[in-house]
Amino acid sequence: MKELEKIYNPKEVEDKIYQMWLENKYFHTEIDKSKKPYTIVMPPPNITGQLHMGHALDNTLQDILIRYKRMHGYCALWVPGTDHASIATEAKIVEAMAKEGLTKEDIGRDKFLERAWEWKDKYAGRIVEQLKKIGVSCDWDRERFTMDDGCSEAVKEVFVNLYNKGLIYRGERLINWCPHCLTSISDAEVEFDEQDGFLWHIRYPIKDSNEYIIIATTRPETMIGDTGVCVAPDDERYTHLLGKTCVLPLVGRELPIFADSYVEKEFGTGAVKMTPAHDPNDFEVGLRHHLEIIKIFTEDAHMADNTGKYAGMDRYEARKAIVKDLEEKGYLVKVEPYKHNVGTCYRCHNTIEPMISKQWFVKMEELAKPAIEAVRSGETKFVPERFDKIYYHWMENIKDWCISRQLWWGHRIPAWYCQECGELIVSKDVLHECPKCHSTNLKQDEDTLDTWFSSALWPFSTLGWPNEDSEDFKFFYPTSTLVTGYDIIFFWVARMIFSGIEHTGKSPFDTVYIHGIVRDANGVKMSKSLGNGIDPLEVIDQYGADALRFTLATGSSAGNDTRYSEDKVKASRNFANKLWNAARFILMNIDGEIKPGLPEKLEQEDKWILSTLNNTARAATENLDNFEQGLAAQKAYDFIWDQFCDRYIEIAKTRLNSDDKETKDNVRRVLVYIMNGALKLLHPFMPFITEEIYQALPNNTESIMMSQWPEYTDDLNFEKEEKSLDRIFALAKEVRALRAELGAHPTNKTNLIIETEYTDDFEQGIGFVEKFAFSKDTQIVTKFDGDVKKYSQIVVDGARAFIPTGDLIDKDKETARLNKELTSVEKDIQIISGKLNNQGFMAKAPQSVIESEKAKLEKALDKKEKILSSLEALN
After folding, report:
1. Is the pLDDT reported for residue 483 higher than 80?
2. Torsion of Cα atoms, 828 then 829 then 832 then 838, to 10°
3. pTM for the complete prediction?
């Protein structure tokens, strides 16, 4: 039997325990067809990334589920991996090269990719080691990378299949262009920020007329590319101008005036300038009306050569110059302040530029339909359910997905162009000859695929697909639960669902568990710019991984943000210390061998603690099955701190000091049994300390993570003893609270009279009452007939206690206390009555819930009556 150190030191325990888990392959999963599979694929962190609180929360929640399912008898697999993160990684490498005075073009593509792989080898391991510090129990033997051979094979398979079906095409479309990252980005990668801007009203003269039409725009610099003016079909102000042309100020180009339902009469002047090359809505209108497309920006957002005197200017510099010229020449009517949403790049946060460009796209309408149906039918469900609305909105309004990126790091598009005959060939294999003209002069497409293209295949590419004979794929796919934040539902979740259905015929997971973000103690989102970010590794170094994990778990509920505070971590650290001290106490009271299991003879308090553990296990199991990790963690905490440590262990001390060997042995066996059960309930949340204590307890050999999860059993349901002692402890708790409020010292034991209908229970447990309520000469009566003016009173369910207060209290103070209780109980009555009077609640709530609320109301009304009785007697 192992001895525990006097003080728990996470630094000494956690690394040692993790290494033991790795060496014994406890995280590794072998296919066991006698068990039901449970699979999670880790959302792959970027190789450029460093562990932040979001990672800590996300991976803690996943680890809780996988440890729980493993103990619950599932064949549980958690697949880890990292993402190549093309834009972010390439930017880091380019930045590092710039310090050497080098550019990508200086060294060429091959040499650049050599540097990129070196970067990956150097930094990808960093975040993996940081994840291990949290205690993640994923199968590191199955670690994957989005650009490893298997994932790359899957990417090529998918690209070629979609191309052959006509679902991938190359064409000129308006795309989101980042002038800083110098690449296209998808709609999902555009973040919209509300910014203060202006609305410029500009006169466009009608040709061969003294008349003009006034347009309003937030981007006057784009007018150089205007090729039309559009009005609403039912706007009578402009009916006489339809079919005519106006003259573009500063340029002189004639622009047709036409009608389209896209225009809203109420916006600005009701007349909208059309710049099809640089606005997504104008582009669509332009296609309908065959407008010319004139591109006026370069890739780095400077004015192009076709913009005359403005050529070479930055877009914002050009805006000032154009507005100045409009004003000087009398075209500018007025300028109004205007708030509007501006699209920015999710990586660098620079303003994106809508730009016409030849790119590769995925046709989305056909792919989206079965993905929408998968959620509607319940094949995949969101937890909480409300997030399916975000999913539906995105999928039902989805546009074709631009998948090409002007980058070198990533999956290169498997398309070749014959330089002789112009043939385009898409192939999984590297081509050396044109199948049409047999020329060997082929050139592969320079672009790479959007990072999310490979990430969308993650649930099945990591399990061996496209090899459908892969044992992992056949057994573990579809996966079980995806744990992720609400911010990437459309980035990633939607794309995984339609990809899984299209390529495997099945949705990739049955449940999407959505969590929120970690905010600081004031509710502000953590960010580098605000300086309120907390490094989880520093927290782990100071308080231990278990304290951080438990803080994140108890503060978490599905779909909601959680607030981090150091005080909460300290409280979790204190909880760990409480558990450690309880374990040391038990071990110090065991001398020699101890039989496993429970003794035949059980005392009242034994039955109470066993029944409480039994019901706690049932409740925690239900919570975890419903993805209520925070509630399950709180139940384990309450049981260990309140019931086990503060009550049962205190009671057990008397029996441990007994001269009777059987009495001592019996209570030791119960202590060990309860500690084992409590450790198992807590293990998914605090794996390190539970493992260390579990290994120290007698008769435990293998890891706690291989032990069986505590199951509810009727054999340990001692309802009578549990309810009886729960009443006694509830009353004792209130008595102690009252004594503390009145300033009574624990050594100053007071007489106590208990009025109750449960006289047998209280008389049998009178010793527990006096121990925990600091009372003496306790009397149990069915009806109190003393002078209430001489007593302080408390009311609990099923009992009323009278304490002689003497000089400890004055009448006003006791009246104030009772009035405070009265206010509280009246608020409870109002809330419960509101529910029971709510037709919607009564119609939808299960009958068991309704009955529970009715019982609560009855108790609250009874408590109110007793408080009023006490107040009346006192006054």
Report:
1. yes
2. -130
3. 0.81
